[in-house]
Design brief:
Low-confidence stretches: none
Radius of gyration: 27 Å
Number of helices: 20
Mean pLDDT: 94
Structural class: alpha+beta
């Protein structure tokens, strides 16, 4: 529907909106879209709320093959219809190379009409192909009751955005400048000269020639100075540790502290991330422009950045987090009696694991033993080898081997689960989550041992991580539906791995905290309870 063309206005905007609104908000109609989240947001800002989304071809294409490179209309048309669409770049044949193409209203009306009509036609054709395919593969339940209803929920989260205190970040940036300068001074003093710490070539010269440290691994440009190498070298020399610290602070400053304020929307005064529903093979949501899921939380510096995220005046943040959800899922999927019992009795699972591995009462498990148990508990889900465990815990390979053997003796059903899952993956060429999400694993039968091992790790991890992701999504739906049903002002702002961040009027804090805990705990019924930790605060950094 052309509002504007190269010659100026075509149709009256108000008249178009008046006529489109009753159509697009008519709940008796079924709307089929490609990347509906984008359309939902554009229309919502224009005063129209899409009320009857019946299908999203992008989400369906992703469910049918989560490992494909792209789920854009052009790629889906080529893969499923054998059809080559007109690309946006084709509309500007004289533009030359590059990505900064003119806006759509500069396309002549006839060409724009054909381009837009093709989009609609191909979307509908894909729908007719995808609908039976979803049923055939057993994905209909997952699509219609989880992924499709999530589209408007994510769109609303993106539209709301989150408030940040830009003054706080500006002050922190100045503080980081001072810290970085002092670390540089310390490095120069230790090395006896100044050099560019960010230059790999100059760093190689300092570490391996001047300080005569033993190189760990070679790259095309000399010896590696990546994080793992510097961590190893830091055991024998103070410079690598300071370089690591310098890198961490530089990255935090450039990626978050200085970058986030520039991304605040001047109209809303808030930061609006984009949640990618089709970005992972496990089903996890990812966040981009900016990525708010990757702000480090273990370090004080990362927490300082989160402290700059604040609710609106008179509102609070409510954070709800699933406790050890992936281990809970592992206990359910493996039906291991020891792990299941620990969760049912509300025990500290890592302490219980430590007690069983080391043969001591739980109350006598030391913090070092608990750390070893925790590393193995989570490592097993990612197919951690004895070599990797030995490096992570700084112990011998033999000792790491003994710990892993003791772990599988302690939880024998987990060993069976790992072996059975790999066997099933070899038979079917794919693995599934508890709610039926599938991940193809073409490399599971590879003759290359390294490639096959990688596929086996994915085979074990996907049902666990993917099921956890499905549970979090179901929780998001339950929470948002109940907030709407009760007429609450609170709304979900962010989803970060196993955690939901909501913004609620201060007067609703207690009721919303209770509501969120109830809905998240009831998201699915497992053989072990889903435990939810709920906190409230006046900044994101205040929470856990």
């Amino acid at each position: 529907v052309p509002l504007r063309g190269p010659e100026g206005p075509v149709l009256d905007e108000e008249e178009v909106r008046r006529r489109l609104k009753p159509v697009l908000e008519d709940t008796s109609l079924e709307l089929i879209a490609q990347n509906a989240k984008y359309d939902y947001k554009v229309l919502k800002r224009w005063g129209i709320t899409l009320s009857s989304l019946a299908f999203d071809t992008m989400v369906a294409g992703w469910l049918l093959d989560t490992t494909a490179n792209s789920f854009g209309l052009d790629e889906l048309a080529r893969a499923y219809l054998g059809y080559t669409t007109v690309h946006y770049a084709d509309l500007f044949p004289d533009h030359g190379r590059g990505r900064n193409f003119p806006p759509f209203y500069e396309v002549p009306l006839e060409a724009a009409g054909n381009y837009a009509a093709e989009d609609a036609d191909i979307t509908f054709r894909l729908y007719t192909v995808f609908q039976p395919l979803l049923a055939e593969h057993g994905f209909s339940e997952l699509f219609y009751h989880l992924e499709l209803p999530l589209v408007p929920v994510l769109a609303e989260m993106e539209l709301r955005g989150i408030r940040i205190d830009t003054d706080m970040l500006a002050a922190y940036s100045r503080e980081l400048d001072g810290l970085l300068a002092s670390i540089e001074e310390e490095i120069y003093e230790l090395c006896g000269r100044e050099f560019n710490i960010a230059s790999t070539k100059q760093l190689q010269e300092v570490l391996f020639v001047e300080r005569k440290l033993k190189p760990v691994k070679k790259t095309k440009t000399g010896y590696s100075t990546d994080v793992a190498v510097l961590q190893e070298l830091a055991r024998e020399d103070p410079v690598p540790e300071k370089v690591l610290r310098h890198r961490l602070l530089s990255k935090l400053r450039s990626t978050y502290v200085d970058a986030l304020p520039k991304l605040v929307n001047p109209e809303t005064g808030r930061l609006h991330t984009h949640f990618t529903q089709t970005g992972t093979a496990t089903g996890r949501l990812s966040s981009k422009d900016p990525n708010l899921q990757n702000i480090p939380i273990r370090d004080e510096e990362g927490r300082r950045i989160r402290t700059a995220f604040v609710p609106a005046d008179g509102w609070v943040f409510v954070s709800a987090d699933y406790s050890q959800i992936e281990l809970v899922v592992l206990a359910h999927l493996s039906a291991d009696p020891g792990l299941t019992r620990a969760f049912r009795e509300g025990k500290d699972v890592h302490r219980e694991t430590g007690a069983l591995i080391f043969g001591v009462p739980a109350e006598e498990v030391t913090s070092a033993q608990r750390r070893i148990a925790k590393t193995i508990n989570f490592g097993v889900m990612y197919g951690m080898s004895s070599f990797r465990l030995s490096r992570e815990l700084n112990i011998s390979r033999e000792e790491a081997e003994r710990f892993i053997e003791a772990y599988f003796r302690t939880y024998p059903n987990i060993k069976s689960f790992v072996e059975d899952t790999v066997r099933r993956a070899e038979t079917h060429g794919a693995v599934r989550t508890l709610l039926g999400r599938e991940r193809p694993l073409p490399d599971i039968t590879s003759r290359n041992r390294t490639v096959k091992s990688g596929a086996e790790r994915i085979a074990v991890n996907t049902p666990i991580q993917g099921t956890a992701a499905d549970i979090v999504k179901r929780a998001m739906l339950r929470v948002s539906h109940r907030l709407a049903a009760e007429g609450r002002g609170a709304r979900i702002l962010l989803q970060v791995h196993d955690e939901l961040i909501l913004e609620a009027p201060a007067a609703e804090q207690e009721a919303v905290s209770r509501l969120v805990e109830e809905e998240m705990a009831a998201a699915v019924e497992l053989s072990v309870p889903l435990r939810v930790t709920v906190e409230a605060g006046t900044s994101w950094g205040e929470l856990h």
